[in-house]
Amino acid sequence: MEKQDELALDENGKSPTDKLLTFGKNNGTFSFKITDKDGNVKDDFNMSITKGQIPTIPETNYLYHTFNQDYVEQNIKALGYEKDSDIEGFILGKVNIDLKEDEDKLAKIEKEGKELSEQVEKEIDAYVKENISNIQNIKRLSEYAYLSSKAVFQGIENELFEVSKSIDELFADYNKIKSVPENLSDINTVDRVNIDFKLLNEIKENLNKEFSLSSLAEDFKQKIKNKQSFIETGMTLLSETNNNTCPFCEQELRESALNLIDSYTKYINDTESKTIKRFKANSEFLSNLIASLKVIDNNNAKRINSFNEYKTKYIPSSEEVELGSLNVDAAQKAIQAYIEIIEEKLKDISKPIAIENSIIEDIEKHQTLLNNTIDSNNEQINLINAKKNRIGEENKSVRKEICKCAYNNLVETHKTNIKTIFQLRKKWKALDDEINIKKEQQKVSKRAKVASTIKTVLNYFFSDKYSLDEETFRLIFYKTALEKDQARDVLSDGEKNIVAFAYYIGDTHLKVESEDDYEKLFFIIDDPISSMDFTHVYTLCGVIRDISKIIDKLKRERLFVFTHNNDFMRVLTSNNIVDKKLLLKKGELKDFNNNLTVPYINHLMDVYNVARKGENANHTTANSIRHIIETLTKFQNIDISKDGIADYIKYNIPNDTKSYTLINDLSHGGWRSEQSPITEDDYKDVCETIIKHIEKDFSGQIEYCKKFNEL
What we know:
InterPro entries: CR006_AAA (IPR026866), P-loop_NTPase (IPR027417). Residues 92-126 form a coiled coil. The protein has helices at 69-76, 100-131, 149-155, 167-178, 197-207, 218-226, 228-241, 255-268, 271-313, 329-347, 357-389, 391-440, 446-462, 487-490, 493-506, 534-545, 547-550, 566-574, 599-612, 621-637, 645-652, 658-666, 680-697, 699-710; strands spanning 27-35, 41-50, 63-67, 90-91, 444-445, 466-468, 475-477, 480-481, 521-526, 559-562, 582-585, 588-591. It is mainly alpha-helical. It folds into six domains: 1-61, no CATH class; 63-92 and 443-591, P-loop containing nucleotide triphosphate hydrolases (Rossmann fold); 100-162 and 392-429, no CATH class; 190-213 and 276-389; 215-269, no CATH class; 599-710, no CATH class. Helix 2 (100-131) runs antiparallel to helix 12 and helix 7 packs across helix 8 (255-268).
């Protein structure tokens, strides 16, 4: 806020505030209020403006320091872009005091922190040496580094590792793994249940058929049925001997015996006999199937016992795994029910018996359930076998887990003491800074502070190209002081605005009378980037970001930045240089959206498309190349290097290629008339060289271009 006595009507009776009024209006009001994040009012004032009158400047709680076109016109341009050296006065420091008490306190804090830190480090090292270091090959693991005292100290700020067991349990697991015998055999897998459902369906169809019965007497057939196997065996032997002697008792067969044998032969070859024989074979098949299920069940039980032994004794990572038991009873009952139906059929094969589909479906369901359990068990059996055969990996995994668990224990054990150490360090740093500040407190020349600050800001932009002569307050160009009025002709338009901004930052010290006044400063910065290229815009944002470092007495930055420039706004917001971002639209302030165009990325995308996508160069390609080189030059060298664009090309672009020469010319803004016309292939070579350079040092940028083109 300007002082009251600095405002006056001009020779035409106009007030310097008349231009602030809306066209056609003769008066207006201005209200301004500042509140902190907690809602506390920090400043609140009103001002009335009347055309042709000097307004009354209200009392404010802050010192408002403004950069705008008026500042440039009145303080810089009017003086030929030279700084007014007529600066008098001092900035009053605080009264010097005896620092012995503070220094004694500092030494006491340092001693206490050092002793406590040494004790904690000693206990950490002792624990690791006693419990961890003697584990074979554990020091080769990267996780062992977590057990250093430095890592443990840092650990109280980080999340602990997720571990599955306590340290004692992990030690027990390690000992189990060490005890695995060299030739420990694999656990065999369990055979799956494999029922022939094609046969079951054939049996089903046969049960539903009507078979013809033999014409022999029923009592005769019954006798044969009871000993059919015996009779068939005898008949086979008799046919083999081909004589009339009984193959069993060796007696000669008489006519009655031969007639009986003929009856036997007739029956055996009869359909009824063959059918009964087939059904009995079916019944026997199903009975064997029931028996096989019992065998599979027994084998599975044995595998469970072996698995439990291995996981308990040798493979702790599988100890939570439980193999499933088999429930074969239900399957056996379903099969037995099928057998009983066959037995019923055998009583009278001429009667059809219809079988429900559910009977076979029930058997198939039980097979599926059993095989699911068997497959799951076999998967775990194969897994534990693999772990056994790669026991070194299991060993390594447990050792890693031991390191993590030990780290967690050390952090938890020493957390309180480590926090105390950090607090002591913080307390020591604060007191040490306070002592240093007190030592530096003195009456400081405003002239010297203004000059020093201007030189610092100029260095941000120009390194040693431009500086300030502290005696004459004239600019220095590469160690040569400019003569009076020479700056107006030497500086470009963009450089003039940079110099004006540097003078503005330096003039901050003219707003204060004492160190306490720095706490009242409020910066108002209105579009300071006129005629600046993007590199300088970026640097200016850095100056705003570092303003509390440039003005060392400034403890907190308070500022408003106004701009019409999207690029300037983007850098300020995307780098969190300002806290609140607003857009003035149709007389209203609205939250600003950070999703703005990024010039560098757009230029890079154009060059990438020429180099890699086969697009033709156009009238903006050279400008894109220049923009990229300028940005990379400033990004790599910040503001401390003397190197310019030519130096960057010299050190980073291969000088044995034609592209080197082309880039050097294009990046300086033009193509010499004496040279041959640049061709599409020349442009493609230049662009490819640029892309390869960026791909080498900043590969993520080229990956972004690739992905963007794939969208």
